[in-house]
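Morning run. Coffee first, then this:
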Amino acid sequence: MNTIRYSPQKLLDLFQAQTVATMPQLKDALGSSVTYTVLRKLSPLGYRSSYSHNGTYYTLDTLAHYDELGLWSWDGVHFSRQGTLLNTAESLVTRSPAGYQVPELEAVVHVAVKDVLRQLAQAGRIFRREWQGRYWYGAQERTRRQEQWAARQAQQETDDDLQAAKALFYSLLDEQPRRLYAGLESLHGGQRQTAQRFGLTVDTVARGERELLVGQVLRGRIRQPGGGRPTVEKKRPKS
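And here it is:
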C-alpha cells in the first residue's frame, strides 16, 4: 500500500500567490480533504488563523506585517501575533497605557469585543470596573492597573492642568508613596473621591491618611523596624 505524501511547498505557493487563504483553498492546494492534515503541514511554516471571521482565514507570519500592537489586516481580515481574539484582547488591555472601554478597543481591533472582555474579566485575566456609565477594563496586576487608572484620569482631566499633573505624578510613584500621596489628597477631596480618582480602595486611602497624620512613614525601609529575621549573634570562639 502506497503512502500518500503531501508537500507543504504547495501551501507555500498558494500563500505566495494570494497571502491569505481559506481552509477549502488550502485543502485544494494540498490535495487533501482532511483539516488535520492541512494544519499538520501548516504548523512548521508558522501560520496564523484570523481572529475575525471565526478564524476561517489563514496566513503565514513571514507574510504578515504586524504593527506595534501586533495586529495586521488584509482585505478586511484581521490577524494578531497573539492568535485568538481572547488572547489579543487580554494583551491589548494589559499593555494599554490607560486601559480600554468597549468602543475604544473595538476601534482598534475592528470586531465586537464586549463578550470577550466579559469572559476575560470573569476568568480573572483582566480587571473591570464601572466608570461613567460603562465598564472600564485594565490590567489584572494591581500596580499596572493603578498606573493605567491614573493615566485614564489624566486623559479625562485635560481641561484641568493641575488635576492632570497630579494624576501623572501619582503614576510615577512606588507603592508606599502612592498610598501616602492619596492620603494627602484625601485631606482635601475626601477619601471616597480620592479612591475613585486613583483606582484605590477607600481602606487604602484611609491608611495613607492615617500614616501621614501620625508620622508613620518608612524612609528607605521595606519593613517596619523589628520586621524580618532576627539578627544572628556571632559567637566568639572559645580560647
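Confidence is low (pLDDT under 50) at residues 221-225, 227-239. Good start to the day.
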